[in-house]
Request: fold
Amino acid sequence: MILYFSGTGNSLAVARHIAKATDETVMPLTEAVRMDLTAEKRIGLVFPSYDFNAPPAVRNLVPRLRLDPKAYVFVVIPCGAQAGNAIWTVRRLLREKGIELAYSHKIRVPDNSAIVFGRNPNDQKWKFTRFAGRLDTITADIRNGRRKLHFAWFSPLAWIMGTERMEQWMLRTFRPAVNETQCVGCGTCARVCPVRNITVDEKAAIGPHCTACLACLHACPHQAIMVGEKTAPKAHQYRHPGVKLTDLTR
Ligand SMILES: Cc1cc2nc3c(=O)[nH]c(=O)nc-3n(C[C@H](O)[C@H](O)[C@H](O)COP(=O)(O)O)c2cc1C
Ligand code: SF4
Ligand code: SF4
Reply:
């Protein structure tokens, strides 16, 4: 079973790729926490890195998983460039449950946070071709039950960015807001929010449990979600090309 957390589809696409080659099924991490997975002999965790760490939602969900301590557990992180402390963090969370992480790797994909800095994540689709071989190697490793942790090299930047204070700053910087003039109340943002943090009456309203995934910003058909008081153009909205909007909606 492969458990994924995904805002814009990169992690879902990577989870599906590995699942196809290993004859596994995929399931959102948010659903998996409600299930007893102790019969599963192989568990994958596929999620992005945020701010050089695992997303806050993933760090909340992993301790709640019910897993067999003897299962082969692997982590794959589809990220723009740097997984930072994400693998260390999840290894520690699993260890606290008596589970030893068997395999981990990052894979580079388009950086969906580029939109916040006025850049177009769609310009990074070259990474799919450049790193296709790497993804196949990771998949083969997992199929063969390889045991090896590929950590990021220690980076002072990752360490600084991973501190509580920097993370709070990042969450504030990336916190989305609704442009009420542009919002038509269609509800797409609420359906893609993986942590159910958006309600829609006549207009969308964003709650206090944002994990900064940017799914709402990228999916809004009216470009009505802002970060830093700015909306982003339609051309900068990103979703993995192999993933449909309905694959990400509840
Ligand atoms: C809030 C936020 C912070 C991010 N921080 C990093 C980072 O520190 N390093 C990195 O390589 N990519 C970073 N990214 C890019 C994502 O890891 C990357 O685009 C990922 O594939 C998104 O996965 P998804 O499409 O499954 O949601 C960040 C993205 C977001 C939304
Ligand atoms: S997706 Fe956009 S337009 Fe639709 S409810 Fe959300 S913010 Fe409003
Ligand atoms: S409110 Fe938007 S950015 Fe925050 S968790 Fe939900 S979809 Fe992601």
